[in-house]
Each structure stands twice: as structure tokens, then as C-alpha cells.
């Protein structure tokens, strides 16, 4: 019998992919032919994803430790495997397609940090770790921590960035097929992560203050991409966030 969060684990298993199995040769050849503006815009989003995916994959162990039950724990473990792959994928694209210098992922991440807003870096490298730290100290904070990670970070910030990236890739003067393929696979993984987080939030008893906080956090977080994504895309992300919170049974007063 399938109970709790088991179906997310089964789904994750069926969606496995390997970032090194994608062919980036056409992308490598195409990159120098992009215009400077195109390179700047693609690299800005890649920089955000490198920082984001590295940070989220680092924090999931704490969520796993705070899980209530084996089924939820297994789903966090499956998610951690996805996030680690996403971090490797974006680093691979930065290094091998975009030619970002650096001997290792840390050095490349340092080189990319100046391409995104201070607010984006702060969200992933300060606020998320601080939330995970609170969760490590008090497992009762799980719903709030999932609210920030799955609903706000994944549901608003990453989803908006991924859609913007796919739109941008489709409009480039030359194609980047390997990057496009990987982006689609990342997005497919993120959908079940958000579904999993929504389920946790749905099963919790969310009060008015927490509901308001989730909504406000989403509205603020949507802006961390700065001008890397359009105001329209930000608005859409916030609207979907509100709809997802409602679907998870959260009432707004
Ligand atoms: Fe991810
Ligand atoms: Fe994710």
C-alpha cells in the first residue's frame, strides 16, 4: 500500500537523469556566436541557479533529519539527490558552455556571485541557512521551513527563473540545445518538489500569521532576480504562489 509521501519517491525514481548524459557540443560551439547582451542575460540566470541549487542541496539534510516519518524522510532524500544533480548541471554549463573560469565549483561560484543581486545571494546564503539552523534546533519549525524552501524559493524564485530561462533560450540568435534539455529536466524535478512541499503545508495547521508571512515572503522573493526577469513574469509567479497556497488549504483573511 502506498502511504504518505511514497508516491513522490516513486515518481522521483522514474524521473532520474544524469547531467553528464546530455550532449553540450552544439552549445559549446554556439556560445561564442551569442551577442554580448545574450551572453550577459543567460549568464546572469545561470549564476543565480548555481548559487541557488548549491545552497538548497546543502540545506536539505536538515529537513531530512526533521522529517516526521520514514515516508517524508525518503522524499526529502530523493529531493536531495535531485538538487545535488541540479547544482552539478548548472556548474557544468557555467564551466563547459559559458567558459566561466575557476578550478572548481566553489571558485566558479565566487566568480559568478557579482552577476546577481545582493538580495538573491542573501536569500540563499543567509536566510535559507538561518531557517535550516532554526529547524535543526527545533523540528517544530518544519512547516515554516518548508514554506520558505518549497513554496517561496522553489515555487516562486526558482520557477520564475526557470521559465524566464526557457523563454530566453527560445529567443536566442543561436540554439543551446543541451542547456535547453537540462533546463526542462530541472523544471520537471522542481514540479514534484513543489508538490511535495505543498502536501506538507496542506497537512499542517497554518495560522493567519504564518499564511500572511508566506504570502509576503513570496512577493518579496519574486524580486530577487532584479531585471533578469520581466515584471510580468514576477507578477505571474506571485499569482501562482497565491493560488498554490490556497490549493494547500491556506485561507487569506
Ligand atoms: Fe533544484
Ligand atoms: Fe527543488
TrEMBL record:
InterPro entries: Ferritin-like_SF, RNR-like, RNR_small_fam. Its cofactor is Fe cation. It comes from the Bacteria. Pfam families: Ribonuc_red_sm. This is Ribonucleotide-diphosphate reductase subunit beta. It comes from Pseudonocardia alaniniphila.
Amino acid at each position: 500500500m502506498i502511504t504518505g509521501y511514497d508516491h513522490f519517491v516513486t515518481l522521483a525514481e522514474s524521473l532520474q537523469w544524469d547531467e553528464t548524459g546530455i550532449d553540450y557540443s552544439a552549445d559549446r560551439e554556439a556560445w561564442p556566436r551569442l551577442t554580448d547582451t545574450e551572453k550577459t542575460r543567460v549568464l546572469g540566470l545561470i549564476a543565480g541557479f548555481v548559487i541557488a541549487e548549491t545552497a538548497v542541496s546543502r540545506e536539505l539534510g536538515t529537513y531530512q533529519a526533521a522529517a516526521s516519518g520514514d515516508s517524508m524522510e525518503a522524499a526529502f532524500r530523493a529531493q536531495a539527490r535531485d538538487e545535488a544533480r541540479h547544482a552539478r548541471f548548472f556548474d557544468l554549463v557555467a564551466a563547459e558552455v559559458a567558459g566561466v573560469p575557476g578550478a572548481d565549483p566553489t571558485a566558479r561560484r565566487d566568480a559568478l556571485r557579482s552577476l546577481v543581486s545582493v538580495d538573491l545571494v542573501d536569500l540563499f546564503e543567509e536566510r535559507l541557512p538561518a531557517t535550516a539552523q532554526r529547524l535543526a534546533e527545533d523540528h517544530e519549525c518544519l512547516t515554516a521551513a518548508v514554506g520558505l524552501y518549497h513554496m517561496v524559493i522553489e515555487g516562486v524564485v526558482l520557477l520564475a527563473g526557470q521559465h524566464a530561462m526557457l523563454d530566453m533560450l527560445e529567443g536566442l540568435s543561436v540554439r543551446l540545445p543541451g542547456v535547453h534539455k537540462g533546463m526542462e529536466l530541472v523544471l520537471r524535478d522542481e514540479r514534484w518538489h513543489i508538490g511535495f512541499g505543498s502536501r506538507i503545508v496542506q497537512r499542517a495547521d497554518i495560522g493567519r500569521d504564518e499564511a500572511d508571512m508566506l504570502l509576503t515572503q513570496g512577493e518579496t522573493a519574486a524580486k530577487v532576480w532584479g531585471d533578469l526577469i520581466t515584471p510580468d513574469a514576477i507578477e505571474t509567479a506571485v499569482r501562482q504562489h497565491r493560488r498554490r497556497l490556497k490549493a494547500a488549504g491556506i485561507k487569506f483573511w
